[in-house]
Amino acid sequence: MADYLSVAAKLVLNVHDLNNEGSVGQSLDIRQIRMVDENGSPLPEMPAVSGRMMKHWHLAHMLTQELTKGAEAKLCDQCEVWEPERKPQDENNGIKACVICDTHGFLCTDKPGFTAIAEVSDNDLFLKREASEDKPEERIEVIACPHKEFDENCPTCALRNLQDKKVKVTGEFSEEEGVKSIKVSFIQSGRGKAKIEKGISPKGLSLRRASCVNFSWLLPVLGQSDQGEMLVPQAKQVIHSRVAPAAGSDEEKSSQMIFYKSYASGIYAFVAYIDLGRIGKPLRGEGITNHEEIERRQKLAVQSLLPIVTGAFGASQSHALPHARCLGLLAALSTAERPVPNLISPIYSKGFEESIALLKALGDGVSWWTFGEGLEDAKGNVQEVFDEILEKL
């Protein structure tokens, strides 16, 4: 079973707007980055695309494909509505519930808590957690206070004043004699904040799952043309105008809003890495035990690389989809016993050749495929490479 996939690709991109730096007045500039050549000599600033942008579009292609499954899609509430702030309750459940949280990871720094209604029954005090579609109603006992008279500094006593009111509770759970209890640290009522502390504040919940997918920046290739000139991507600022809407005065109707936007063209390359063996597997807990589901998610992650290799990524796709062509592709698939290192980036003149030599040296346990003129054992097109990768999984 394959555990690691490493990909290196080189593309020619004409007239793209893949990563905007920001706007100043009426100008929107494309992102520029500083690089050095293969000898370490500084180069002028050149257009580039961040790894965050590349990773975002891989996530977007995964999400788009998963949404086609309709009710059977494995997505959490946040990912289903394209919300980047993913907050699963824990890594194990987060992996099981959502393909995106599983593959692209998450970071949650919330304090543990829930919404409930304070409920008094005789001398007992409970928090009645609200029921939801996936969770039944739950009554949670509050750890009793030792005194009989009301004490304004006691959170348990204070809860009695919130009888039948909705409260947001933050605290630490404990199990005592088989009963789930909570040590209340503070309560926030619906009519405003009423902070009530007892002992230490609850520990912050810091849950993190590292991404199984990693991208480099998309950078201009280092090299020279046949005429000996440095291959530096060119950027051009173009004038756009936005005509005023039909409603308004005659002067407003004839007015235009002028703004300037940069576009670039050049030959670029990137490397990407997918830790396929970690998909469906948390650091703690059993994770996904269904082998078919794990294989489905692995294939989904691999398939979502194909649009990236063919140039379907970046900003302004509605009106500046780049004229893209894949010039070269190298993909390597390996097992845990023989992990494949990150491939040498094709921004370097001998990147592909040096990577192939490295893969050959690794021997058995590593399979690799190529596409592109002059590359060893090259396939007829990019799709053939991905078809053979998917067949190997």
Explain this structure.
By secondary structure, the chain is an alpha+beta fold. The chain is 23% helix and 34% strand. It folds into 2 domains: 256 residues, no CATH class; 92 residues, OB fold (Dihydrolipoamide Acetyltransferase, E2P) (Beta Barrel), CATH 2.40.50. The chain has 11 helices and 20 strands. The strands form 4 sheets. Strands 1, 2, 3, 14, 15, 16, 17, 18, 19 and 20 form a 10-stranded mixed sheet that branches. The protein has a 5-stranded mixed beta barrel with strand order 7-8-9-11-10. The protein is globular and about 85 Å long.
Arithmetic mean of pLDDT:
81
- Oligomeric state of the chains? single chain
Structural domain tally: 2
Regions with pLDDT < 50 over 5+ consecutive residues? 190-204
Short description:
With 393 residues, the protein is α+β, with helices and mostly antiparallel strands. Helices cover 23% and strands 34% of the residues.
Short key terms for the protein model shown above:
393 residues; single chain; globular; OB fold (Dihydrolipoamide Acetyltransferase, E2P); 10-stranded mixed β-sheet; alpha+beta; 20 strands; 2 domains
Helix and strand layout, with pairings?
Layout: E1 4-16, E2 20-24, E3 27-30, E4 32-33, E5 46-47, H1 51-67, H2 77-80, H3 91-97, H4 99-104, E6 106-108, E7 113-121, E8 124-129, E9 138-142, H5 155-160, E10 166-176, E11 179-189, E12 192-194, E13 207-209, E14 213-215, E15 219-220, E16 234-243, H6 250-254, E17 256-275, H7 291-303, H8 306-309, H9 317-320, E18 323-334, H10 351-362, E19 366-372, E20 378-379, H11 382-392
Parallel strand pairs: 3-17, 9-11, 19-20
Antiparallel strand pairs: 1-17, 1-18, 2-3, 4-5, 6-13, 7-8, 7-10, 8-9, 10-11, 11-12, 14-17, 15-17, 16-17, 18-19
